[in-house]
Each structure stands twice: as C-alpha cells, then as structure tokens.
Design a protein that fits this description.
The structure holds two protein chains of two kinds.
Chain A: H1 3-36, H2 55-63, H3 66-97, H4 103-113, H5 119-131, H6 138-163, H7 166-174, H8 179-187, H9 192-208, H10 211-216, H11 225-230, H12 242-262, H13 264-277
Helix pairs in contact in A: 1-12, 2-12, 3-6, 3-9, 4-6, 6-9, 7-8, 9-13
Chain B: H1 5-56, H2 75-81, H3 84-116, H4 122-134, H5 137-147, H6 154-161, H7 175-203, H8 207-215, H9 220-248, H10 252-258, H11 267-277, H12 281-310
Helix pairs in contact in B: 1-12, 2-12, 3-7, 3-9, 4-7, 5-7, 5-10, 7-9, 7-10, 9-12, 11-12
The chains are: A mainly alpha, B mainly alpha.
C-alpha cells in the first residue's frame, strides 16, 4: 500500500468513526423527537421519519399541569442562580483576593461539600424544610439546591478572581474605595464571562435536579419538570403514555440544547476549569 | 530606582508597617464579612442536615414523628449489616460504578483523541457530544426506557432486524439485563463529560514530545502508550475519581428506569425507600450515613490526588 493510499484509508476510517460517534450521541434524542411526533395509535410502529402530528404535545398540557410544572422549574432555576451567584461573588472576592489564615482549609471544605451525596442530607433537610414551613413550597428547592450550586460557583469564581490583575484593585484602594465598591464597580464588570458560565451551569443543575424535588414537593401543581416527567403515568404500569412522555421530554430539552449550543465554548471552559485546574 | 528603594523604605518603615498592618487587619475583617452569608447558607443546607441525618441514624425516628425519636445506639447499623438487601444494593452500586466509569473512560478517551486529531468535522463532533450532557438525566432515562421497551422498543427492533436476537428482550424488567440497561444509559449520558475533561488534559500536553517522536518516526500507537498516556495520567485519574464519586451516589437514572426493583437498587435508592416509602427515618438515615462515609473516603483520595497534580 502506498503512502497516499494509507492516508486515504486513515481518512475514511476517521470519518467512519466520527459518524459512529455522532450517531451514538444524537440518535436517542432524534428517536424521542420522532416518537413524540407520532399519532398515539402508531406508537407501536417503528418508523425512522417523523409523522409531524402534534397530538402528544397537546395531550401533555391537557392531561397534567405541565405548563405550571415548567413555570415551577423556571422559578426554581432562576432563583437558585440569582442567590448562589450573589453569595458566591462576595465569597470569591474574600477567597480570591484577600490573604487570611484558614483560607485554603475553607476552600477545601467547600470543595468537599460538592462531593456530598444528596441522600446523606435528605432526612436532615426534610426536617429543616418542615421546620421552616416550606414543605411542598418551591422555596424549599431554592434553599436546598444551594448545597450543590454554591460549592462550584464559589470555586470557579474564586479561580477567576485570583487571575484578575492586582493593579486594578490597588488603584481603587488608593482612591479610597471600600471592598463593596471594589467588587461591584471594579470586578463585576470584568466578571460577566465567568458569571455567565457558572450561572448557566447552575441553571442546568437546578433545572435537572430530581431527588430533592421528588421528596420536598407533594402536589402535582408544585412538581418541577423532571418530577413531572418521571411520574407521568397511564392507566397501568404496563400502559405508560410513551407519546406524552417523549413530547414532554422534547419540550424541556430543546431550550437546554439551544442554550448549550450557543454557549458551548463557555460551558466547556467552565466544566474543565472546575475539574482540571481545581 | 531599585538601588534607591532600600534606603527609602528604611526611612518610612515605622509608619509604613503600622499602616500596612492596619490595612491588612481591615481587609481580613472584610474577608469574613463577605464570606459570612455564603458560610451561613452552606452551614444551613450542608453541615446541619448532615449532622441531623447522622443523629437520626442512631435513633428510631419515624417520618410522621421526628421529634419523638429515641436514641437506640448502633442498632440500625447492626441491622443494616445483616440485611441482604443492603448488601445487594452495595454490590449493585459498586458494579454500576466500576463498569460504567471504565466504559466511559475508554469511550471518552477515544472521542477526545478523535476531536484532538484536528481534522475537519471536529466542531461538529464536539457539538454532538454535548447533546447527551445537556439532556436532563430523567429525560435520558425515559428516552432509553422507551428505546428499551420490550414490545415497541427500537432497540429490540434493530437487534432483531440484524439477527442478533430472535425474540424481543424485556431489557429493564429482566434481572440479568436490567443493570446493564441502566449502565448503557449512564455511559451514554456521561461519556461526553469524560471526553471533554480528557480533551482539556490532552490540549495541555507539551507539543515538543510529539514533534520529537514524529521526527524519530515512532509508530503512533507507541507514541500513545509511551507519551500520551503517561502524560495524561494525572488528568485522567482526577476525572475517573470525580466520576466514581458521582456514580456511587447514583439515584435518578435507576429510579426512573427500574424503580425500587431489588436487582438494580443502588445505595441511594435503598436509603430513600426506607426513609420515605417505609417512613423509617432512623434506619434510612443509617444507610445514608454509611454511603456518606464510603464517599468521604473516596473524596479524601480525590483531594490528595488533586493536590499532587496541581503543585503550585
């Protein structure tokens, strides 16, 4: 085999591998879309092209308070992002810019919290939620989600703060600016990229959370989207309304995929900053 | 400038030092002020509930009457150790973690190397790989449960069409295949994360080694084993431990696909079933505490490795 032939063969193998990877990652979602667009009577037929019928989409909203569930998820995710970013920006200024004893112990403790299995705090959290009168209330979710959003927002923002040039802050200190002003007027404008990345990751984490949402809400009206989708049921366990489930799945996933595709570079750098550099 | 500096600073030292330490003290005070809200919230949602869970593990607390809990010592833990269902859950969780993380690492490495080859189409691949990552776990579990459906599932359809199986398999109901079905979904969902972490590691490798190897005409496979893999090892180890920690606390995917089925039940599902379905908060908390300590051991390992890898 000549060098040119071998090169061509390598190229072909490479593109074959690429096709397999893309098929593997994309096909399940494609199949969900195809299934969701079928009329209910044809669910049992395997067709690889969508039928473009929207009965399932109508049924999802008619048969359960799915619009309410989406609204719940939006409220919980947005409030989680807002609160955790506000707390994390302040904390990351202290951890990233100020030398004090106990700083690295604190950083590692915070990192340790991100490893907590959610189940390990479930009964204690349940008691807390009930004591605060928040059972079956969306605020219970905003509060409890802090356990997984705070550690990584603090960690990533601290890394970012640390890398901002020292001169910026020194100039502000000379001008007599207090730390609050330094954070809001000097650092915040520079931090938008990091805030967007961590905010987006926190949003996705809150949007997808299941265990707390399943345990701390009771009525169908208070469910968030993942709980609603997991608990969609039909006449019996053997007759799950798969068309509705697939339609609901597509509805809540499309906005996420669009977000991820728009911000893909930021997400990749945010994910890897948290794990590799950390 | 540099030559004048010592004399000048010696002259103003007394004043400068006092002022500097006052400034430092003030800054440290501000540091704690800025940290306080975050620390209060973190205490409230992490340390406090964890402590309470551990306490409940030593009591006979019941979901309907948490306040009336009586201290029972280590009775819950003793019972846990003698419960075959718990050990089944431990076995399931460890099997799940080991197999899925191994597969994810191998596939992730392959995908990362393919993207890193810098050929046209790499952008498309990177985008495609992000799709499973963006899909909520619950949704991916439902999507795959539908594909695995015994009667109408596309997987049975395709496997029968190419003749691998002769009749439909009830993938998620059959105890022999259920855990594998769950592993398949987890591998699909988290391989992208692995690939992206490994890719980040690959892109930080020094290019000189590769140039040297290319000049010397070393076979690419040998370059991979002798250069890439050893250099990549720290990043790979961190990613693997990170994923193992995640896999050991698995809940969502198994709960949705196979529910409280004993043949696939993980430690998290076992604990929640005791806590919520059977209302036995004391016993469920004991199981949750055990899981916490298992994961704590791995976390210490992760942090030690993380520190070794960092060195700055």
């Amino acid at each position: 085999m000549t060098r040119a032939q071998r090169r061509l063969l390598n190229r072909i193998l490479y593109y074959l591998l690429m096709a397999v990877i893309v098929f593997y990652t994309v096909f399940p979602f494609y199949w969900a879309i195809v299934s969701s667009l079928k009329p209910p009577a044809e669910m049992f037929r395997v067709d690889f092209l969508p039928a473009l019928r929207f009965e399932n989409y109508v049924a999802v909203f008619r048969e359960q308070p799915f619009a309410r569930n989406i609204l719940n998820s939006v409220i919980v995710a947005v409030s989680t992002v807002a609160v955790s970013l506000a707390l994390a920006v302040a904390a990351s200024y202290a951890l990233g810019r100020i030398q004090f004893t106990g700083r690295s112990v604190l950083l590692f403790t915070i990192l340790g919290v991100s490893m907590f299995p959610q189940i390990a705090v479930l009964s204690g959290m349940f008691e807390l939620v009930r004591a605060l009168g928040l059972y079956n209330n969306l605020l219970a979710l905003t509060l409890s989600y802090m356990i997984f959003t705070l550690p990584f927002t603090v960690w990533v923002l601290t890394t970012f703060m640390r890398e901002l040039p020292r001169e910026l802050e020194e100039a502000a200190v000379v001008d007599g600016a207090k730390p609050f002003t330094i954070v809001t007027k000097v650092f915040m404008p520079l931090m938008w990229p990091a805030l967007a990345t961590t905010g987006l990751l926190a949003f996705i984490a809150a949007w997808n959370e299941f265990l707390f949402a399943l345990t701390f809400t009771l009525s169908t009206e208070m469910r968030t989207v993942p709980v609603a989708i997991a608990l969609i049921s039909g006449a019996s366990t053997y007759e799950l309304p798969w068309g509705n489930i697939m339609a609901a799945s597509v509805i809540v996933t499309v906005p996420l995929i669009v977000l991820v595709l728009i911000f893909q570079r930021r997400i990749v750098s945010g994910l890897t900053a948290g794990a590799v550099k950390g | 400038m540099a030559t004048v500096a010592p004399a000048a600073s010696a002259a103003i030292e007394p004043l400068g030092k006092a002022r500097a330490s006052r400034l430092t003290r003030e800054r440290v005070r501000y540091a704690w002020l800025f940290l306080a809200p975050m620390l209060v919230v973190l205490f409230l949602v992490a340390a406090w509930p964890l402590g309470r869970t551990m306490w409940f593990g030593l009591t006979d607390a019941n979901l309907s009457d948490l306040a009336g809990a009586q201290f029972v010592g280590f009775a819950n833990f003793a019972y846990l150790m003698s419960d075959p269902d718990w050990w089944q859950a431990v076995r399931n969780t460890v099997t799940f973690a080991v197999i899925s993380v191994t597969l994810e690492t191998i596939l992730g490495l392959g995908i990362a190397l393919a993207i890193n080859a810098n050929l046209p189409g790499k952008g498309l691949m990177r985008t495609a790989v992000l799709i499973p990552w963006a899909i909520p776990t619950i949704v991916s579990a439902q999507m795959w449960a539908w594909m695995f459906n015994d009667v109408f599932g596309v997987i049975n359809h395709m496997l029968m069409a190419i003749g691998i199986i002769s009749q439909p398999v009830a993938w998620t109901a059959n105890p022999d295949t259920a855990l594998w079905a769950v592993i398949m979904v987890d591998v699909w969902k988290t391989t992208p994360f692995m690939a992206l972490l490994i890719l980040a590691g690959l892109q930080m490798l020094p290019s000189e080694c590769y140039e040297a190897a290319e000049v010397d005409g070393v076979h690419p496979l040998k370059v991979f084993w002798k250069v890439t893999l050893p250099l990549l090892k720290p990043a790979l180890m961190v990613a693997v431990i990170f994923r193992i920690l995640d896999a050991l606390r698995v809940f969502d995917v198994i709960y949705v696909m196979t529910g409280n089925n004993k043949s696939t039940m993980s430690m998290s599902i076992y604990a929640r079933q005791q806590l919520v379905d059977f209302q036995d908060v004391g016993y469920g908390s004991a199981a949750a505490t055990m899981l916490f300590f298992i994961i704590a051991i791995f976390t210490v390992a992760y942090m030690t490795l993380g520190r070794v890898g960092k060195e700055d």
